[in-house]
Amino acid sequence: MPACIFCKIIKGESPASLVFEDDNCLAFMDIQPVNPGHVLVIPRRHAVSLADMNAEECARLFSAAHALAAAVRASGLRCEGVNLLLADGEAAGQEVFHVHVHVFPRFAGDGFGFTYGPEYAILPERRELDEQARKIRSALTPAVGP
Ligand code: 5GP
Ligand code: ZN
After folding, report:
1. Ligand 2 centroid – CA 98 distance (Å)
2. Full 3-state SS string of 76-90
3. What residues flank ligand 1, with Cβ below 6 Å?
4. pLDDT digits (tens, 9 = 90+) for 70-100
5. Which residues are catalytic?
6. CATH fold of 5-115, please?
7. Domain coordinates of the chain in residue numbers?
8. CB-neighbour burial class of residue 18 (10 A; exposed 0-12, middle 13-18, buried 19+)
9. 75 CA → ligand 1 middle, Å
10. pTM of the shown model
11. CA-to-CA distance for 49 and 43, rounded, in angstroms?
12. What digits encode the pLDDT tens for the residues 41-80?
């Protein structure tokens, strides 16, 4: 495995502005924030993708992200809303291949936004949504299923 920058932060070999840590995860400031107050929450155990994490590890990661979203709102930093974002895979925009949840404050006119493809304006028919739902439902693992 090539040197992972987030593993180096965990080991204290690379500097970071720490916000939170427990035995499962770590949260620190992003060096290139979308807005001031942009936090990254990562699992201590190196995992490239969500698929490499078990349900318990994920639950604890997202629980920390939940608490950090509340802390960002209460911090006094400019914050009218919060985005939680996780890029899982290169096509999803992942650039650092150690799972991380972005938690960052948003405010009107901050310039951040999502862009959509040309098909976005065309709403799918119900039968297409039902078919997609069927496929995803049948792929659900017992760990997350009903
Ligand atoms: P991704 O595109 O993979 O979802 O986001 C990676 C994030 O990691 C980016 O927002 C980038 O600014 C941040 N990042 C990359 N290298 C470092 C680093 O060495 N330290 C910190 N704190 N953040 C980093
Ligand atoms: Zn790592």
Report:
1. 5
2. CCCCCEEEEECCCCH
3. 5, 16, 28-32, 40, 87, 93-96
4. 999 999 999 999 999 999 999 999 999 999 9
5. 100
6. HIT family, subunit A (3.30.428)
7. 5-115
8. exposed
9. 22
10. 0.95
11. 11
12. 999 999 999 999 999 999 999 999 999 999 999 999 999 9
